[in-house]
Design brief:
This protein has about 375 residues and is an alpha+beta fold. It is built from eleven helices and 17 strands. Among the domains are: about 140 residues, no CATH class; about 90 residues, no CATH class. Helix content is about 25%, strand content about 30%. The strands form three sheets. It has an eight-stranded antiparallel β-sheet. Helix 1 runs antiparallel to helix 2 and helix 6 packs across helix 8.
Length: about 375
């Protein structure tokens, strides 16, 4: 799915943010507090609304007071908006979602068009209307006012699967080093990477995955020969073990650097999720990793990102900006308390032959500095 346009309004510092022509691998660079994380959370919020409904989504994100945009006027601050224009399976589609009265009893408004024809229409507070290819319409009577009707369009386009598989990763290397319990989830990586050992134990059964992890780890960590998992006898859980060249014993994860574990979590997230529809969002993938390793990691994320499953990352690292391509780079800043974003390719007239990180540090994109 090629994303032509995303627009989000009414979420934290995102009063109204527009992103055009997003690449499958996109880097959002900016200082702390500029709103990069708010953008990631807004996409995850949309996913939760579509999957669970607005009431549960607002509760999951700690309530209206934590997610509304305080820079909007009183009436507007109660409304959230999301709009996406994309090409999926060769068809142009647009989907718009509004959540009204978020502070009391949320009411959804939705519209989906495919190839210019309306497929789903839902006005504020009304039941959804589904429109077939021959123009006949049907009402979904008794449908909850806060639950998305996008689920009824799954047979036509896979947009529902795409938008309900959005995951934000904020890895915690200290927690990821700990052995997993016997009940840890083996189907999906935890947002903090706390079940990475169990995920690896499941995925490394596939020879291709095992080879990819070994290849990338040896590239990122010179001297690393092998990464594998093993059962822990006392707890029945799973631990990660590493082997270095020329050293016979295998090291447990707690003797490995935070950066190595961090890179392993990123690889597990990207490699395990890249085959299906969805969006993978990774906060600050450069943490604890040397500049050459960051460049290799950027290549991995770019290689595995696809129109069907893009990978978006946030950063304030010069090394990750340097490893980006100009049309992948978005400069995020805050003006008058509102998050804004510029694509570097559309503001690059003055950079000449400079590296992207140098141009960024010199503020030649006029998109804000990394501090």
């Amino acid at each position: 799915m090629n994303i032509d346009h995303i627009e989000i309004a009414g979420f934290k510092s995102l009063a109204r943010l527009k992103l055009e022509q997003l690449k499958p691998y996109s880097v959002f660079a900016g200082p702390n507090g500029s709103g990069k994380s708010n953008l990631m959370d807004a996409l995850a919020f949309v996913s939760t609304v579509i999957e669970l409904g607005a009431v549960k989504a607002i509760r999951k994100f700690r309530g209206f007071s934590q997610i509304h945009c305080y820079k909007l006027r009183k009436n507007n601050t109660r409304t959230f908006e999301f709009d996406i224009h994309a090409t999926m399976n060769g068809q142009k589609l647009t989907y718009g979602l509004k959540i009204h009265e978020m502070d009391t009893s949320p009411l959804l408004e939705e519209k989906l068009t495919v190839a210019g024809k309306p497929v789903l229409i839902r006005k504020k507070g009304e039941v959804p209307t589904l429109i077939k290819e021959d123009g006949t319409q049907s009402l979904v009577e008794g449908f909850p006012s806060d639950v998305s009707a996008l689920m009824f369009t799954q047979g036509l386009v896979p947009l529902y699967h795409y938008l309900t598989n959005v995951q934000v990763f904020r890895f915690d290397p200290m927690g990821a080093k700990e052995p997993d319990g016997s009940s840890a989830d083996a189907t999906e990586l935890d947002s903090h990477g706390h079940n990475v050992a169990t995920m690896l134990a499941s995925l490394e059964k596939e020879a291709e995955f095992r080879a990819q992890v070994t290849d990338w780890m040896t590239l990122l960590v010179p001297g690393m020969e092998q990464v594998h998992t093993a059962p822990e006898r006392l707890s029945g859980g799973t631990v990660i073990k590493f082997k270095e060249l020329g050293i016979k014993p295998h090291f447990p994860a707690n003797l490995i650097s935070d950066g190595t574990i961090y890179a392993l979590c990123i690889m597990t997230a990207v490699l395990s999720r890249s085959s299906g529809y969805g969006i993978t969002l990774i906060e600050e993938p450069e943490r604890g990793i040397h500049p050459k390793g960051i460049e290799a990691l950027a290549d991995l994320m770019r290689d595995k990102a696809s129109p069907e499953h893009p990978v978006f990352v946030t950063t304030h690292s010069e090394s990750l900006v340097r490893a980006s391509r100009i049309d992948e780079l978005w400069l995020v800043n805050k003006l008058d308390g509102k998050t804004v974003a510029k694509n570097a390719a559309t503001h690059s007239a003055g950079i000449g032959q400079l590296n992207l990180d140098t141009a960024w540090l010199m503020n030649l994109f006029d998109g804000g500095l990394p501090w």
